[in-house]
Amino acid sequence: MSIEKWSDEIFIIRLQDDPTFTDDVTTTLEELGDNPNVHAVLDFESVGHMNSSNIAKLLKLRKQLLNSKKRLILCNIDTNVWGLFLVTGLDKVFEFANNVGEALTTLQIAGK
What we know:
Blueprint: E1 2-5, E2 10-16, H1 21-34, E3 39-46, H2 52-67, E4 72-75, H3 79-88, E5 95-97, H4 100-109
């Protein structure tokens, strides 16, 4: 995993597939807890599957950011992972973008 500070208000987090996915999201929670004024873009390019523990961590991260009135955008979602979001109804809970560039544009246009 890498956390890229794209600006003072936006972090790009490049997640890895299991077994490190949960650790990546835990580290992200800690990092964003230390930086409460930061929006997060989660890049799923290297993630091919997810489990219930992964989903729980993502929901916790989403809650943390919403409590800070910040946005969480997920991007580069694999077809298998997208299917999981659709089946669970989480496609209506999370905000998505096709790629990192689109996510950054969304944050900039919305005025963050």
